[in-house]
Amino acid sequence: MADDTTQRTMLSAGPTRPAPRSACLVVIHGEGLGRRVDVEDAPVLIGRSQDADLCIAHKSVSREHCRVWRDGDAYRVMDLGATNPIHVNDARIDEGVLIDGDHVTIGESILKFISQTSVEARYHEEIYQLATHDPLSDLSNRRHFAELADKEIARAVRHGRALALCIIDVDLFKPVNDRYGHIEGDAVLRRLAAVIRSHVRDDDVAARIGGEEFAVLLCECDIEAAATFAERLRQAVAATRFHPGGDPQQITVSIGIATLAPGRASRSSLMAAADAALYRAKNEGRNLVRVED
Ligand SMILES: Nc1nc2c(ncn2[C@@H]2O[C@H](COP(=O)(O)OP(=O)(O)OP(=O)(O)O)[C@@H](O)[C@H]2O)c(=O)[nH]1
Question: What region holds the FHA domain (predicted)?
Answer without folding.
Answer: 44-93
